Structure formats: C-alpha cells, structure tokens
Amino acid sequence: MDLFEYQGKQLFASYDIPVSPGDVATTVDDAVAAAEAIGDYPVVVKAQVQVGGRGKAGGIKLADTVDEVRTHAEAILGMDIKGHTVERVWIEKASDIAEEYYASFTLDRSAKTHLGMLSAQGGVEIEAVAETDPDAIAKIWVDPVDGLTEEVARGWVAAAKLDDAATEGAVDILQKLYRAYVDGDADLVEINPLILTPEGKVHALDAKVTLDANAGFRHDLFEYEATQERDAREQAAHDKGLQYVGLDGTVGVIANGAGLAMSTVDIINQVGGSPANFLDIGGGANADVMAGALEVITGDEKVRSIFINIFGGITKGDEVANGIVAALERVDIDVPMVIRLDGTNAEEGREILSAHTSEKVLTKPTMLEAAEAAVELAK
Amino acid sequence: MSIFVDETTKVIYQGLTGSQGRFYGLRNRDYGTQVVAGTNPKKAGTDVEGIPIYASVAEAKEATGATASCVFIPAPGVKGAVMEAAEAGLELVVVITEGVPAQDEAWFFNKVRRDHPGTRILGPNCPGVISPGKANIGITAGEIAKEGGPVGIVSRSGTLTYQALYELKLADIGVTTCVGIGGDPVPGTSFIDCLEAFEADPETKAVMMIGEIGGSAEEEAAEFIKAEMSKPVAAYVAGVTAPPGKKMGHAGAIVSGGKGTAAAKIEALEDAGVRVGQNPTEAGAHMVDIVASL
C-alpha cells in the first residue's frame, strides 16, 4: 500500500533518518497552526496525494508569511490532482538546498536481491535520468542475507559521485533507509530529493514508501489502511477482502485466481466485449465471499451481464456453487449471469447449479463460450 | 520420465493437521502420491488418517526417508518452515501458502541458495507440481491431468495451470510434469529452471508456458528458449488487455512505465520461435498442432 509523504516521513523519522520538522493538516486553520508551531518562515505547503506530479499541478507552494500559508492551504486543500482530491497538506520548514540527489531501495525480481539506486541527479523524474543518462545512477544489489554494510554503502556513495560534503550524511542515511525498507516490510522506499544543505547537512526532503500488505501480521497498518485512496467500487470490494480493479466496460468479471481473472478480462476484450472490472475471489472462496463479490459487481451501474469463471484448485466447485445460490437469495441481481465451472468438485458444483439455472443464470462448458455468451448478453 | 517429482518421491506435509493441509494432503495421497508424514510440534505422535505426525521435519525425514515437503503453513510461519525443511536436507520444498511477505521470500530464497544448494524451493503462492499418474504435490485437481506425456507445462498462475492441463486433456494430450511456479516476486523455481529440466527430460517433447504481465521473467525465458532449447514451445501471456499501473492480484502482475507489458513478452517469445496464443484455448490449440507434428 502507498503511503502519503507525511506517513513516509514519520516512518523515516522512526529510523532516525533526518526529515524537515513539520505537521499534517486537514483544514486551513490547522495548516496555519502547524506553520505557526514551526515558527520559522518560509514554510512549504505540500499536497498529500498518493499519486505523482503534484508539484506540476500546483500542489506544492512556498509561504513566507502566515497569510501566505492560509492562501496556499485554501487553494491546495480540495484541489484535484489526477483524480485524487487533496484532503491533507503537510507543512514543513523550508530548506535551503545546495544539491539534490535521489536514493531508493526496491526488490529486483530478476536478480532476486534488493536493488539500491543512488544518483547525484535528484529532484527530477528519475525515469528520465535512467533513459537519457543511465550512468548517472549508481546501482548496488544487496543480498538480503548480508544486508547493507557501511563499507558497501561508502563505496556506493563514492560511485554515485555525490559531493564530498554529503558523503558522511549519505552513508548514514542509506544504511538507515535500508533498515526502514527491510524491517518496515516495504516494497519501495524512495527519497527524491535527498538534499545537501549549504551547511553540509543531508536530509530527506520527500518520502515515497510502498508497504507490503502481506506483512501486516508484523506491523500495525491500520492507520495506513484507513488512508488508502480508492474509488468507491474498489473500497467496497476491499472491505469484503476481494482483489478488485475497476475498469470501464459492461461485463462484470468474477474469477478465482489472479491469472484466470486477468485471462477472463483478456478474453472478454477479444470476443468484442468490454470488462467492467477485474475481480479475483482468491483461494478457498466460500458462499460469503461469492455473495460479497456479486454485491460489489451489481453495485456497478454499468454492468449489463456477469461472467463467473471458476477453475477449482484450492477453491472447491461445490462451495462456489453454494455461494452463487446463496448470493442469488441475498443479492438482488437483475442482470444475466453466465457461469463456467471446472476443476476440484466441479461436478458437484454443476449439480448444485443445475437446479437454479434460468434465463438469467446460464452455465457454459468452456471459457470461450461463456465469454461469448456474457458479451452477447451485455449488448 | 518427469521433472522434480516421480512415483518414488516421499513427501512430508508441513501443516497436515490444518484444514487445508489435511484436505490436500489426503487428496494427494488418494491420487497415489507417497505422503509419508506430517509435522506439528504440538501433535507429534498422533496421525492424520494413518499419516504419522512428527515434531519436526528432521524427525520426519529420519523416520520415513522423505525427500520432499509441501508447506501448508500460514504466511507468518513460512520463512521458518522453509528453513526447517532446507536444514533437514530435503530436496524439494513446495510452498502453497499465499501472502508471504516479499522480504521473507527474498531472504529465504537467497539463504537456501547459498547454504543449502541441494534444496529446490517451488513457490511460494504456487499450486504445486503434478507428474500425472506418479505424484501430485499441492492443490491441482489430479483428474484434469492426463498421464503419459509428451508435454511439459510451466506456469506462473495457478488457475491458468489448471486451464492449460484441461485444454490438453480435452485434446487427449498427456503431460510429463506440470509445474506451477507461482506469481510472487521471488519464486523459488523460475521458468528457466523448468525449461532447462524439460529440455533434459527425454519424455518431454514439447513445452507449454503460461506467463503474465509484470517483471521480466518471460523475456528471460524467451532468451533461454532461443539459445538453449531444441524442443518446441507454445505459450500464453495473461494480461494482454490489463490497464497500466494497476495491480492485478499477483504481486507480479503489474505493468509500470511500459515495462513488463504482455506485448513485450509476446514479442520476445515469438522472436524465440514460440507460438503464442491470444487466450489459453488458442495456446492449447497451438500445442495440439505441435504435438501432431512431433
């Protein structure tokens, strides 16, 4: 899950990574109070959204006076940035910047180890640097078993050609950032820019952190969870524990397993239809899960037909069928539904369903035939 | 022949006393797999329908001569379970559990590779491995796989693995081994590991590969196929129409910044001479053609 900048900075601060003093605010008055608490102008008013490009959108403003804080906070709170409404601003003391760098850790799937990237060209889109001047990014691969030693960090900083004045601060921050990445169970930690001040201090001016929700058993993610920015359909699905991605079409999709769900989306497109969503009910789906999935799908007004594509492995066909039957009783479904069921206990499942088939509830023997039927019914 | 498992494979189920472990452990035994033991430190000395439970993998291995393990332990315990199996010297550890933290996965992959090179990890978050008629370790429904070869299957996605088996069975084509490698960020066994093993297996005459968007594993597999494989390959890549930037369930299935798209993967595979289907059924049809021409 993606964190807001302020949450990322709070996480960084808990690992002793230096960040600018500041506070988060959801109202103009609180933003002013936060600035007054810092008490040292100028301050920066920064929109908190889980999407990039807020600077260009006017979501980051410098304020020299308390009145300017008020003006900027009024403008930024409620602003729309790429479909995300700004509900929070982060107010922090403005920093004098001598140099801007870039630092990050993420998992390199190919190398199967952690990848650290460090560049003296920070403050800009790192993807652009990677394309135009790849040598400007110093990369290291850190074996998870070994971790990042000071010696390796030092060599890495030297390779990135940071200014001499930044060396000690950077070596220290990078080791702490690696700790935050591993112990914090992050998929990504990124500081852009990591800055060097004229006084020779190095600190994190921004924070981008993506946490691995699978590690929730080790951390209290409740507060982060509560602030995830999702659209209404995605939130409804999430509340029911379903893997859901909203799309723009008319055929609702329910499948078990990410691969099959993706493939179902593909095949609907290929036979001339348009999927309304990707919905993976996951493994071991029971009646409640299936009913919940149907509730989410039928809550989408664009949906004109539903394609339920189940291939049982860990998911059992009879449980899915019972779920569908229970859902039909619980959920008011006024669009036709096409079901394809195979795999573990599929025969038992088909038997259960056969008593409930009608003009609105069809079963088809193959994925392709079911997709064609669902697309036809959506027309 | 088969790869990774056969009728002599003796398997321990770590988590046999849990509901999922019990269901699939017993089902795998019914299939004919040698399920020789389960482990649970609190239930040592008991049994699950005649399958003895030991306190540790080492004890179970000592008592039964087991060579493989199937892990049905909840995600928080997977790191420990994998290390226990590797330290006991098992040759194959199949991890069915989904939702294992990526940091754990990266750690035990590297730890096992370094300290226990004789141990192969399959998964996590994989459906397991089935060599039809010989052994079924994991959650694949055995009846959808026809035995006797000549096709080997390797897949990143569980349900699409079943779909591939099913397409072939409908066409009356048998399978040597079907390996689900799982869709997580650091799979213990890669496409290339499986392709290499299938290339070396005399009974496998052709390979069906199921990939998906995200990462670069399919591109790397394509390079391997081009350089090293003499056997024909048919493939399907899921997520052709997935919107960029959206995470489609699997940690692996996300397209970011134009990298890891299905189009790029399909191009790389086709460039390596692989026949790529637009959907699983079409990929199955390609394999039917390939088998007919063998």
TrEMBL record, chain A:
PANTHER family, sorted: SUCCINATE--COA LIGASE [GDP-FORMING] SUBUNIT BETA, MITOCHONDRIAL (PTHR11815:SF10), SUCCINYL-COA SYNTHETASE BETA CHAIN (PTHR11815)
Presence of keyword Manganese: no
InterPro entries given in the database record: ATP-grasp (IPR011761), ATP-grasp_succ-CoA_synth-type (IPR013650), ATP_grasp_subdomain_1 (IPR013815), Succ-CoA_synthase_bsu_CS (IPR017866), SUCC_ACL_C (IPR005811), Succ_CoA_ligase-like_bsu (IPR005809), Succinyl-CoA_synth-like (IPR016102)
Residue stretches making up the ATP-grasp domain: 9-222
Subunit annotation: Heterotetramer of two alpha and two beta subunits.
Job description of the protein: Succinyl-CoA synthetase functions in the citric acid cycle (TCA), coupling the hydrolysis of succinyl-CoA to the synthesis of either ATP or GTP and thus represents the only step of substrate-level phosphorylation in the TCA. The beta subunit provides nucleotide specificity of the enzyme and binds the substrate succinate, while the binding sites for coenzyme A and phosphate are found in the alpha subunit.
Binding of Mg(2+), residues: N192, D206
Residues engaged in binding substrate: N256, G313, I314, T315
Pathway in which the depicted protein is active: Carbohydrate metabolism; tricarboxylic acid cycle; succinate from succinyl-CoA (ligase route): step 1/1
Assigned keywords, A-Z: ATP-binding, Ligase, Magnesium, Metal-binding, Nucleotide-binding, Tricarboxylic acid cycle
UniProt cofactor note: Binds 1 Mg(2+) ion per subunit.
GO biological process: succinyl-CoA metabolic process; tricarboxylic acid cycle
One Pfam family, short name: ATP-grasp_2
EC number(s) reported in the record: 6.2.1.5
Protein encoded by which gene: sucC
Catalytic activity from the UniProt record: succinate + ATP + CoA = succinyl-CoA + ADP + phosphate; GTP + succinate + CoA = succinyl-CoA + GDP + phosphate
Gene Ontology MF terms in the entry: ATP binding; magnesium ion binding; succinate-CoA ligase (ADP-forming) activity
Binding positions (ATP): K46, G53, R54, G55, E92, S95, E100
Family: Belongs to the succinate/malate CoA ligase beta subunit family.
Name of the protein in its database record: Succinate--CoA ligase [ADP-forming] subunit beta
Organism: Iamia majanohamensis
Recorded GO CC terms: cytosol; succinate-CoA ligase complex
Cofactor dependence: Mg(2+)
TrEMBL record, chain B:
Active site: H250
Designated name of the protein: Succinate--CoA ligase [ADP-forming] subunit alpha
Keywords: Ligase, Nucleotide-binding, Tricarboxylic acid cycle
Domain CoA-binding residues, every copy: 4-100
Subunit structure, as described in the record: Heterotetramer of two alpha and two beta subunits.
The keyword Ligase appears for this protein: yes
Family: Belongs to the succinate/malate CoA ligase alpha subunit family.
Catalyzed reaction equations: GTP + succinate + CoA = succinyl-CoA + GDP + phosphate; succinate + ATP + CoA = succinyl-CoA + ADP + phosphate
GO biological process, one term: tricarboxylic acid cycle
HAMAP family found in the cross-reference section: Succ_CoA_alpha (MF_01988)
Cellular component terms per the entry's GO annotation: cytosol; succinate-CoA ligase complex (ADP-forming)
Primary role: Succinyl-CoA synthetase functions in the citric acid cycle (TCA), coupling the hydrolysis of succinyl-CoA to the synthesis of either ATP or GTP and thus represents the only step of substrate-level phosphorylation in the TCA. The alpha subunit of the enzyme binds the substrates coenzyme A and phosphate, while succinate binding and nucleotide specificity is provided by the beta subunit.
GO molecular function terms noted in the UniProt entry: nucleotide binding; succinate-CoA ligase (ADP-forming) activity; succinate-CoA ligase (GDP-forming) activity
Binding site for substrate: Y162
Top-rank EC class of the record's enzyme: ligase
Superkingdom, taxonomy of origin: Bacteria
InterPro entries hit by this protein: Citrt_syn/SCS-alpha_CS, CoA-bd, CoA_lig_alpha, NAD(P)-bd_dom_sf, SUCC_ACL_C, Succinyl-CoA_synth-like
Pathway note: Carbohydrate metabolism; tricarboxylic acid cycle; succinate from succinyl-CoA (ligase route): step 1/1
Transmembrane segments: none
A Pfam family hit: CoA_binding
Residue positions binding CoA: T17, G18, S19, Q20, K43, I96, T97, E98
